[in-house]
């Protein structure tokens, strides 16, 4: 999805099918990858397979729905105050999760992670309330965090575990 060698869709679909047939049972996607195209292709590749035969990991966090790409910095996080306030975090997470699930052609994620969050994403109570609601409603079986490459995220992760550790099932 714009990194490395470009794969034609048919080749990508075949790679996923071969991986599955070879025993790979965990697949990871993020709604921002290809602005939803990765979700769509993964959903197509897994279509027809028994849903309980694989683990689907989704990631949410960048707002490509309303935000504008900032060059190599990518899309803003959904917690960007220029896009919305804390009272709108849960609504964004629900919308992004539902759209991602629809494109993946499934009803739930086995694991749903915050993707490359900013400090607010790691430590914001409204963020974690929104994530917990997705889990309680069955859209995600487990919750986690997938930090980005930025320096300094270790302290944010520690704060996240200290404040919301009971909600966090996985950290990448």
Q: Overview of this structure, please?
A:
The chain has 172 residues and is of the alpha/beta class. 40% of the residues lie in helices and 13% in strands. It has helices at residues 9-21, 37-46, 89-104, 119-123, 125-136, 153-164, and strands at 26-30, 55-60, 111-115, 143-146, 170-171. Strands 1-2-3-4-5 form a 5-stranded parallel β-sheet. Helix 1 packs across helix 2 and helix 2 (37-46) crosses helix 3 (89-104). It is globular. The model has no long low-confidence stretch (mean pLDDT 93).
Shape: globular
Give, in spatial order, the strands making up the sheet with the most strands. Answer: 1-2-3-4-5
Radius of gyration: 16 Å
User: Tally of extended strands?
Assistant: 5
| Class by alpha and beta content | alpha/beta
Give the rounded overall mean pLDDT: 93
Secondary-structure element string? HEHEHEHHEHE
Helix content: 25-40%
Distance linking N and C termini: 21 Å
Number of helices, counting only DSSP H or I runs of 4 residues or more: 6
- Estimate what percentage of residues fall within beta strands: 5-15%
Largest sheet: 5 strands, parallel
Give the uncertain stretches in residue-range form: none
Structure characteristics:
5 strands; alpha/beta; 6 helices
